[in-house]
């Protein structure tokens, strides 16, 4: 299967600090890939490079074989915190990429909010939402431009365990429905195993991909499936090998 997203990173520095060593990243259409590794392994930096938010690096990122030179509407980004504008309504936060909303825009916003379980919340302000609801708005905003690739930087780390599981299920359902490719950073091994087709394990200082663990498990997944526990052992073993180097 050909890659929809490719990143060829030679190096990334912050001043004198060498953050990323050479990385070759290829992700197929519809694939879900997680980045895991110790703090300092450059996971979030790699995500920001792919998103076009970090442009001072040696290398290139391409989508469908076309080199990207900055931000692309085909690549969405969901941050660790919802980052909603407190003075804007939920609907205006979702449609922020379109400063002059039309009737069609408002209809699309309502459709997305229904999809994330927030029908009727268009006029609500962020302060009226729970943490899980705010992150659902962030997911809807990430989907608004109809991206082909969605990047997520620890998107569920700030919510409780039960809400996290519900949001994980929501994400996988939406990704399958829209045929979106996902690349996410997580420190939660269970989350990586539950969501991903592949888990990439990064070594730190400087960051580079040392191991790739393929998870050949059907979707949607059952959290009680013993195969998930076996996959978790595989990922943990890879982490131990990498960080024992």
TrEMBL record:
E.C. number: 3.6.3.-
Record keywords: ATP-binding, Cell membrane, Hydrolase, Membrane, Nucleotide-binding, Transport
ABC transporter domain ranges (all copies): 5-231
Family: Belongs to the ABC transporter superfamily.
Coiled coil: none
Biological source species: Rhodoferax saidenbachensis
Keyword Hydrolase set for record: yes
Gene Ontology molecular function: any one: hydrolase activity
Record-linked InterPro entries: AAA+_ATPase (IPR003593), ABC_transporter-like_ATP-bd (IPR003439), ABC_transporter-like_CS (IPR017871), ABC_transporter_ATP-bind (IPR050166), P-loop_NTPase (IPR027417)
Keyword RNA-binding: no
PANTHER family recorded: ALIPHATIC SULFONATES IMPORT ATP-BINDING PROTEIN SSUB 2, TAURINE IMPORT ATP-BINDING PROTEIN-RELATED
Protein name according to UniProt: Sulfonate transport system ATP-binding protein
């Amino acid at each position: 299967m050909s890659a929809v997203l490719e990143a060829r990173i030679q190096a990334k520095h912050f001043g004198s600090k060498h953050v990323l060593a050479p990385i070759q990243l290829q992700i197929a259409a519809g694939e879900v890939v997680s980045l895991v590794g110790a703090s300092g392994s450059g996971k979030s930096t790699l995500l920001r490079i792919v998103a076009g938010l970090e442009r001072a690096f040696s290398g290139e990122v391409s989508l469908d074989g076309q080199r990207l030179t900055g931000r692309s509407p085909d690549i969405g980004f969901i941050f660790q915190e919802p980052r909603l504008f407190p003075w804007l309504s939920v609907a205006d936060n979702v449609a922020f990429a379109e400063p002059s909303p039309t009737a069609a825009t408002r209809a699309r916003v309502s459709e997305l909010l229904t999809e994330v379980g927030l029908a009727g919340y268009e006029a609500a302000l962020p302060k009226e939402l729970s943490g899980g609801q705010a992150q659902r708005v962030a997911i809807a905003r990430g989907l608004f431009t109809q991206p082909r690739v969605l990047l997520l930087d620890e998107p569920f780390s700030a919510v409780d365990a039960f809400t996290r599981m519900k949001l994980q299920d929501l994400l996988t359902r939406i990704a399958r429905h829209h045929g979106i490719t996902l690349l996410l950073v997580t420190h939660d091994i269970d989350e990586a195993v539950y969501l991903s087709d592949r888990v990439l394990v990064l070594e730190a200082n400087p960051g580079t991909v040392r191991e790739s663990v393929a998870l050949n498990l059907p979707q949607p997944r059952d959290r009680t499936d013993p195969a998930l526990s076996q996959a978790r052992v595989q990922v943990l073993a890879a982490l131990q090998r990498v960080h024992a180097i």
